[in-house]
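Consider the tokenized backbone below.
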């Protein structure tokens, strides 16, 4: 099982409309960051909380997925032995946190971050990164 969160951001989009009614896009900058969880527990349980009214459609290498429910909160129970992950979306801000049981090691959490620069842990202990 793979869990990959992908963040894509488009900035600086300008639409130029010519007098002949043709439009041309200029100055498009796209950045993408992927966070992949490595060596996770294949039998972890995914649950959703606070179901939203929106649905998404996806096309992947494995096929087409339609009317996929969205949730404000997703929880991966036992993503690593004795570690749960909570993923939350609140007003376009995506946040995930780990709940580590007593006696378990946070060092078991393994992330691969692609497309980011300046990866660091801030003074609050939060993992932060900037897109390229």
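A designed sequence for it:
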């Amino acid at each position: 099982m793979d869990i990959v969160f992908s963040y894509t951001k488009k900035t600086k989009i300008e639409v130029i409309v010519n007098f002949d009614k043709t439009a041309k896009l200029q100055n498009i900058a796209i950045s993408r960051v992927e966070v992949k969880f490595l060596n996770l527990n294949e039998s972890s349980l995914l649950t959703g909380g606070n179901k939203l009214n929106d649905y998404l459609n996806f096309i992947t290498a494995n096929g087409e997925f339609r009317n996929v429910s969205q949730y404000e909160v997703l929880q991966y129970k036992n993503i690593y032995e004795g570690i749960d992950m909570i993923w939350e979306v609140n007003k376009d801000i995506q946040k995930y946190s780990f709940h580590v049981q007593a006696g378990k090691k946070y060092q078991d959490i393994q992330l691969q971050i692609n497309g980011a620069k300046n990866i660091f842990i801030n003074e609050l202990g939060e993992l932060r990164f900037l897109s390229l």
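The radius of gyration is 19 Å.
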